[in-house]
Amino acid sequence: MKYIVILLLGLLTGAAIFAAGLAYNPFISKPGLSPLEVTDSETISLAYSAAPSESIFYTNDGESIIEPHPENVLQLWESTIRQSSAMATVLRDGRNQTVGLGIKISSLSEKTRLLSGRAITDSVWYVYLPGRGAFFVEQSENYWDYLRNVVLPAYRSSANTWKGSWLGNVTNGPNALGTARVTGSSGEFEGMDMLGVESLSVRTWRVEGGPIAAEGRLLIELPAVTDAETEETIVESD
Amino acid sequence: MVKTFLIGIILGIVAAAGALYAKPAVDQVREISLVSVAANGGNRENFRINIPVDRVMIGAAGQSSGLPAGLEWPEDDILATVSTEIFKVRNERDVIIGVAARTVAVEDDSSVIDWVLHLPARGSLFVSMEPAAMEDGHRVGELRTGTEEFRSMTGFVAERWVSNTSDDEDAPDGRIELLATYVSRVEESTE
Lengths: 238, 191
Known about the structure:
- Chain A has 238 residues and is α+β, with helices and mostly antiparallel strands.
- Chain A has helices spanning 2-24, 144-156, 227-237, and strands at 43-49, 57-59, 84-92, 98-108, 120-129, 133-142, 161-169, 180-184, 193-206, 210-221.
């Protein structure tokens, strides 16, 4: 009997060591600079509040840490969409001026592999910028670093709150170099295939309510204009 | 005794790793896709949205009462001509299978009507509708792009309103039907 108890204690200790190793394993951290941060092409930077209470609208299954906003919104409780969320938000430019509307719909992804540090969410953005046009962003996001550096410390904190400064790219594909696939549909974006990256900057995160002070940013790289296209434009204008 | 404890630790690590490897962290619930073969090639799928029960949000400038109650649409002038609705989407058997957003924007020279349909575990569709409706009231749009299983698809989507004809008290006012016709890009290039 004594040996069984000790074996069980060993099992629990082993599981705890594994969990700690998984959470703090430095080899599965993937910090890095987004390729769009150093691009020579023209980019569009769109900022939004990543705190759901500051969005126009946010809904999920109603049982998650992040509460729907406004309070009486219809929740996505059906089994097929229970792991999904939807958000509508105002998008702002670098001068904090409203430039458009963004709608993001996400679902937890079956590509999630915690063993290899992949906490994946599949998401799509619909972005409409009045006077400029609309585009669609497809991305898979990896929240592993966010979970490890923000959410876990919040749970460990006696105040159930994490405060600090965390900045990271969450976009993890589907394009090469971990960028999102962006398809233009109208206005100046019509017919354009572009790249995008979404990043998050979190300052406060609570176990009750999720992100309290957080900003998100969508960085879209417009296709580079070739010399031939520039010459064509000059000839046309002549 | 120490040996037993050490064996327990190793077994615990192996068991935890094995459990995490074997049991998927995310397992989406799937409904059978109700896709039929179209007469002239491609596949067809019918999506439905019962109104008002499936409407999750409606936001537009100047609306007296938004949905949900308490929704505050931004007062910025730049969004004055933009409106958005978010719905739950059903399949032909009336089972909820996804979430959709319909955005309408009126510009000086043209209008934009775009749909995004997100079906977890299957993928998403992005459709741009023709602003002008056909004579019988339905509107047709082009499937601009898709993700996951819809990535290699091209095609079009027809949108129409079907009023309720049932006398049932609980019946919805009507439904929005989205009839999608997909053609695989591979199939298209082979032809």
